[in-house]
Amino acid sequence: MNDKSIYSQFTQAKNGSLIPVLENGKTIESRYNPSRECQKTFELQITDKDHFVIVLGIAGGHLIEKITSERKDIFIIGVETCKEDISFLEQSDVIKKLQDNKNVLLCSKEELEGVLLSKYIPAFYGGIKIIEQQAWAMENAQVVAQLKDIIQKTLSLIAADFSVQSHFGKLWMHNIMSNLLYMEKNNIGPGSMIVPPDKTAVIFAAGPTLDKSIKLILEHPDKYYLIATDTAYSILLSYGLVPDAVVSIDGQYVSNTHFIHSADSCKSGSQTRFIFDISASSSAVKKIDASQNQICFFTSGHPFCSFLQAEYGLKLPYINSGAGTVTICALDYALKCGFSKILVMGADFSYVDGKPYARGTYLDRLYNAASSRISNSTKTFSALEFRTPLINSGDNRFTTTVLQSYRTSFCDFLQSQNIKYVYKDDIYELANNNTKNTFDQVDSKSCSGIVQAVCKRFKELLKTERKIDSINDLTNIDISLLPLISWCRNNDNKDEGFYYYYKKALQYFEKF
Questions:
Q1: Within 7-91, where are the H helices?
Q2: Percent helix, strand and coil across the chain, each to the nearest 5
Q3: Phi, psi of 297 (to 5 degrees)
Q4: Contact 54/130 with Cβ under 8 angstroms?
Q5: I want to staple 85 with a disulfide (CB 3.0 to 4.6 A). Which of 80, 107, 148, 282 is the partner?
Q6: In this structure, are residues 277 and 300 in contact, taking their beta carbons and an 8 Å threshold?
């Protein structure tokens, strides 16, 4: 990290503009008329489709000033090599004015990743334009390479999240609305989350080692409170174990197959409590409803649910899902229930001995049903494992970058909760010091009328015209629709601005 600025002083250009001088005596901007030079750059590089721009090299700020004067609908990140550079440049009135502009953020190389993560929202801005101030880039070639690497890696993280929202945005909204209507029709609240925490809670994920670990539970199942993830639910049933709780966050229709035997295995009045994210598959909810088992709803932070809770009084408990993994969700449920001792089984985050899952998942039934002499279930499971490059982690175990990210998220969650654990024989043994049930105060108020009220409000918004030039113009309503807007943007052949896709998202509610 630099401990001094690359700039030494300011000088005045022929047209009166103040420009900084590098320590070697060179200037980044024209000594004659930097404004005219910036006008050319603007005309050559900025298009109507650009709404988020990163400028490498702030210098006197004249290029950023030109962009902001011509376009009020562009957010600009200006980057310098270090904080000392920005401190030096703050002597200029142009830089001071830019720092007061809500559509401009000036940062150092070290700050760039955090700024990008917090400010760049693909659903709102679309793509990113990177502009290099050529003279600055020539003087700081190594820094430019580092900045591009930071940008690429950070955008990969953002793209992964945007990809999920783009794929599931509409499905999540459909599930939320359908599940809210289900709650209203049945005049129910989120359901009771109160459980007897005197037992040891066991979280069942569906990893391959569960086939071995589950034998510990089979000896004395009454000693434990059994919490199955949705994928592991049918595995427990195959061993004759009826779980006390099943947790599901999967919004896809295929989630329904996790519960295909629920009506036969869990008769009306059984102890199983089915705990669904409000954005989870509405088809799965209907399947469980047909078996007359208790259903409880929660939210894991979808912005639309946050909006409904803040403005319409919808009361749903919050359960953390980490990076979107049901294992973390099931674990947080156990923690919030107040269990002091918790075991986690089958959380392998890897393929073990050539198997992606433990025996008894819905995939066994699906693949075996389609099995033939030339294409058996083993071949199909192998295709599942090798769909992305495998990483050899030793002991006949292989993982992928996605599975590694899930493991990291799991461990980060344990650390964030100050949970101490021992990992032995493929089982996590956790000790929880906070044994208070935080679900006690959940309001069981019905959600009656919320869907109708929200749809009426959105239909009225569809009839009005708004000017949304900046992310700062977004209201809580707009933010609540971002996942759906991401889906609209991703599934449209056009490359339009945010307002176009905002209107598309509002049109979704016309069918309710």
A1: 34-45, 62-70, 83-89
A2: 45, 15, 35
A3: -110, 150
A4: yes
A5: 80
A6: yes
Closest CA to 4 of 27, 26, 23: 23
Q: Provide the residue type at 405 as one letter.
A: S
Residue type, 218: L
**Strand extents, DSSP E, 138-243:** 200-204, 224-229
What one-letter code names the amino acid at 58? I
Cα separation, 420 vs 423, in Å, equals 10
Per-residue tokens: 198: 């005197």
Altogether, the residues listed in the chain come to a count of 512
Question: Between 141-185 and 112-119, two packed helices, what is the crossing angle to 10 degrees?
Answer: 30
Query: CA nearest 241: which of 198, 210, 283?
Result: 210
Where do we find the tokens 């918790």?
342
Q: Which candidate, 371, 330, 351, 368, places its Cα nearest to that of 232?
A: 330
**Element containing residue 342 per DSSP (H, E):** strand 341-345
Contact (CB, 8 A) for 435 and 197: yes
Count other Cβ atoms within 10 Å, centred on residue 281: 28
**Measured CA angle at 348 (ends 343, 353), to 5 deg:** 130
CA 350 to chain CA centroid, Å, is 22
Does residue 164 contact residue 122 with C-beta atoms inside 8 Å? no
Distance CA 60, CA 19 (A): 5
Query: Residue 121 to residues 104, 161, 374: CA-CA distances in angstroms?
Result: 15, 10, 47
CA distances from 272 to 13, 214, 227 (A): 76, 18, 9
> What is the SS3 assignment for 322?
coil
Average pLDDT per 10 consecutive residues for the chain, totaling 512 residues = 80 92 91 92 93 96 95 94 94 95 95 94 92 93 95 89 87 93 73 70 92 92 92 89 91 70 52 89 84 83 91 88 87 91 89 72 45 39 47 73 78 90 92 76 61 92 86 89 93 85 92 78
Q: Compute the distance between CA of residue 26 and CA of residue 128 in angstroms, rounded to an integer.
A: 30
Relative to beta strand 397-399, strand 351-352 is: antiparallel
CB-based burial of residue 413 (10 Å sphere; 0-12 exposed, 13-18 middle, 19+ buried)? buried
Concatenate the DSSP letters of all residues of 321-390 into one string.
Answer: -TTT-HHHHHHHHHHHHT-SEEEEES---SEETTBSS-TTSHHHHHHHHT--SSS-HHHHHHHHHTTS--
Q: Cβ(393)–Cβ(350) under 8 Å? A: yes
> Do residues 68 and 82 lie in contact, with contact meaning Cβ atoms separated by under 8 Å?
no
- Local structure of residue 61 (DSSP, 8 states): S
Residue 256: predicted pLDDT: 63
Q: Which residue has the tokens 């050529």?
A: 134
Q: Extract the tokens encoding 284.
A: 């799965």
Global pTM value: 0.80
Q: Which residue has the tokens 């830019």?
A: 98
Torsion sign over Cα 295, 301, 305, 311: positive
